[in-house]
Amino acid sequence: MAASRSAGQRRVSGASSETRQAGWFGNWTLLYWAWWISWSPFVGLFIARISRGRTLREFILGVLFVPTAFNLLWMTVFGNAAIWASQHEGGTSLIDSVGNIDTLLFNFFDLLPGADITSALAVILISVFFVTSADSGAFVIDNIATQGKEGSPVWQRLFWALLLGVTAGILMSTGGLAALQSMTLIAALPFAFIMVLLCLGLCRGLVADKEHSARRLSPATDFWNGKQWRTRMDHLLRPSTEQEARAFVDKVALPALTALSQEFAARGITSRVEEDGPDQCHLLVPQQGRRDFCYGVRIEARPAPAFNPLEAAHNHDPEARIFEPITYFADGRAGYDIQYLTRDELSADVLRQYERYLVLSQDEGQDLLSSAPEHTQPTQGE
Fold this sequence. Notes:
The protein has helices spanning 2-50, 56-86, 92-96, 101-110, 115-145, 154-213, 229-237, 242-266, 343-361, 367-370; strands at 272-275, 280-285, 293-303, 321-329. Helices cover 64% and strands 8% of the residues. The radius of gyration is 31 Å and the shape is elongated. The protein is of the alpha+beta class. 13% of the residues are buried. Residues 1-15 and 375-382 have low confidence and may be disordered. It is built from 10 helices and 4 strands. α1 (2-50) crosses α5. It has a 4-stranded antiparallel sheet with strand order 1-2-3-4.
């Protein structure tokens, strides 16, 4: 009878232990799920801001795989070391401090050599984590409040940082960590629906971007007729100098854009040619409610190739530079070298891009990329 009662108690004790473990796993998973959903607007906007100009492959690699590999390394090394230490002599402090998570890490460091150094380093890293998290949160809130405009005053950003700190302090003082976790769960619910809409918007944006980049032109609008093939060969084999690139801008690009602007004005279309120093000029055709058409030319320098067919027997100068007149556009597409074009061919290329601009502007599926907010500065090639 006693043995049966003891076995029954063990079964009840085992069942309650399994219930506690299941509850812990469920609550912990739910907390982290809600935590990241509530932080998704801040983290997403911040990462998108600092990742501007990166490809999707680079973005996914840097945001998803690199942190995952770091967490895997951390959990494998420190997690296995903590499990091993708790099962041997000297690891009782880890078992006793399971209920106090704040001291668990430092008790683990006490079992390793150089505990003072690692503990101090942990405090510094935790401080940097909280400071950078608060700073990025204040930055994103300020960015949302100013509708993405740059140059907001410093006091405004400090105000949002102070407000975040006061809010967290009130929650911690009134209900402790449980209140902060409850607030996180409450804030995560509406953002869960917003994230679904964001996923749909991302799919729509990717489809529009693919169609925007893959738009093919009619062969009849090809701007190069092949008559200047010797000049083209010369530019391919001999790197151009800065003086030659500037001469192209002054004698070919700027007159061609000016003549086109005059022709636009004669047909009742507003346009203007602007110069940004001796190395850059562009033709701008404003369009109400749409991204302005911008065709610009600027001189860009890049390292000379290590192999030159005309100087194959000479040593390569690592400081040699090539200066090329490169196009740029308002939608951020990559430009191309136009130094081999004549004035008429450059004019034809501008009209070629303007034709593309009109076709995309009239396509309803391209509204996401064709429309632009009022504060957008298309002349910067962004």
